[in-house]
């Protein structure tokens, strides 16, 4: 075939009869329509990814806040337990 050197998505340039031109125009129009559809899909995916990313960032922030609160609560519990141990040791030694 004379157009074997063309890239897969490249449109061939025909040098034949004028009767072949409507077919080339149709092929180009079809290729363009496919490209437009793909670009529109990519744009929709980008919009979805931006929205998902926003939701995920909010979730990460909420989880970080929750983790900080749990660490603080754990530290307070540890301090109370340490204080109880000290009191219990004091009670055991004074008896």
Task: Give your account of this protein's structure.
- This protein is an all-alpha fold.
- The chain has a domain at 65-95.
- It has one helix spanning 21-94.
- The termini are far apart.
- The relative contact order is 0.04.
- The model has no long low-confidence stretch (mean pLDDT 85).
Whole-number average pLDDT?
85
Biggest sheet overview = none
Global Rg = 35 Å
What is the N-to-C order of secondary-structure elements (H for helix, E for strand)?
Answer: H
Query: CA-to-CA gap between the ends?
Result: 105 Å
Give the SSE map.
Elements: H1 21-94
Please outline what is shown here.
By secondary structure, the protein is mainly alpha-helical.
Please describe the structure with a list of short key phrases separated by commas or semicolons:
single chain; 95 residues; mainly alpha; 1 helix; rod-shaped
